[in-house]
TrEMBL record:
Cited InterPro entries: Homeodomain-like_sf, HTH_AraC, Tscrpt_reg_AraC-type_HTH
Database matches in PROSITE patterns: HTH_ARAC_FAMILY_2
Protein name listed in UniProt: Helix-turn-helix transcriptional regulator
Residue ranges that the Swiss-Prot or TrEMBL entry lists as coiled coil: none
Originating organism: Autumnicola musiva
HTH araC/xylS-type domain location: 195-296
Amino acid sequence: MDNILNLESISQYNTLKEVKTRHPLITSFDSSTAKPLDSGKYRFDFYAIFLKGVNCGELKYGRNNYDYDEGTMVFMGPGQVVGIKSAKDYNPRGFALLFDPEFIKGTNLALKINQFNFFSYELNEALHISEKEQLIVQDLYAKIDYELDQNIDKHSKTIIANNIELLLNYCERFYERQFITRENLNKGTLVNFEKLLNDYFRSESPQKHGLPSVSYFAAQLNLSPNYFGDLIKKETGKSAMDHIHLKMIDIAKARIFDAEKSISQIAYELGFKYPQHFNRMFKKNTGYTPNQYRAMN
């Protein structure tokens, strides 16, 4: 098993990158002035936001490799493990911002940081931004960098946290644009999701494993659960779990017409351990209990 180096503090990371520690809980620097990390596996105990300029090495996260392209943004949350394979003789460009969760405690950003799902996207789901978008990101990096160069006062934390929040809000907008510009690719994902749903409920998987989860379908499509969920929501207006439930209800309606099957048997075939759970979900989605629906039809 490969050894994983735990990066537990900002200062430890700065030491590896040969970057000056200006604040114990946050760092920001121009990648061209920093030393590349050696090839290996690293676990981050803090948030990281990277804007990369040129192809500067290969990253591996989960089952996927990712080669940086110009104008690529990558986000990592605390606890993520990433494998790095550094390219030789390259001249890196771009910016890095890393901050400990302790830094944003007590700020508005701390209350909404978990809303930014892209911190748990896989690396092959990175954000690709235009030249104009890069200018916005670089401007916010510069503002944060400026604050770190000043003497720390009572305003520093709030100003920096506000700029990080603004940066993340812009990135959320950019991701929504990316979902739109990749509409054809996304439609392929929707078609495959529908096929997987049909295949799952036609098989014996519900009896063996119960109702499928969003994570199950995300894994089948080689996507992270959050990216998959966001893609489905933005394309259809419904969550991935809503789609799973609606598919299950459609199949249940058809099977309820078979009078030779009891409601309990149908519930079991659909992956419910307890029929009353099926009854509640069916009524929530149709307005009728399974027995009422059978009697009406």
